[in-house]
Each structure stands twice: as C-alpha cells, then as structure tokens.
Specification:
By secondary structure, the chain is an all-alpha fold. It is about 50% helix and about 0% strand. It has 4 helices and no strands.
C-alpha cells in the first residue's frame, strides 16, 4: 500500500482508505481475485470427464477418521 500511495501522491496522514487507493490505481482486491480464480478452476474441473484425477479428488469423500496424535512413521532410518 505504501507504494500505491506514493504513486498517487497520498500519505498515511491524508486518511485515504485503502479501497480508495486501489480504485485510483485500478488494482483489484486480492481476495476477489483468488475467489474468482477458484470459481474458474472449479468450473473447469466440472466440465472434465469423470475419470480425471482432479475431478475425483475434488468430489472425494474421505472414509474413516484420522488417528489421534502424531502419524505413524512410514519409513525406517538406516544407520550406516
């Protein structure tokens, strides 16, 4: 925001809201951008065939429950 404020010639003491600074610089809000991209990706995956991994992972419902505590060690350390 400091960079954007310096571009439009405002300081923090001028009491200009961040939204107004973004509007003047024509910068979109990052939250709106991310939500839009997520929606686009979801629509993209929705159009795919049912056997695609991305669609399977998106629609998957996990079975069972996670164990309590730290996950079990799945590899063995070999001391050489």
């Amino acid at each position: 925001m400091n960079t954007l404020r310096s571009i439009i010639g405002e300081t923090r003491r001028d009491s200009v809201r961040n939204k107004e600074v973004r509007d003047q610089c024509e910068i979109i809000d990052i939250n709106k951008f991310v939500k839009g991209r997520k929606k686009e990706w979801n629509n993209h995956v929705r159009r795919r065939r049912d056997d695609r991994i991305a669609k399977i992972a998106r629609d998957m419902k996990p079975l069972g429950r996670r164990g309590i505590g730290r996950p079990q060690q799945r590899w063995s350390a070999i001391n050489i």
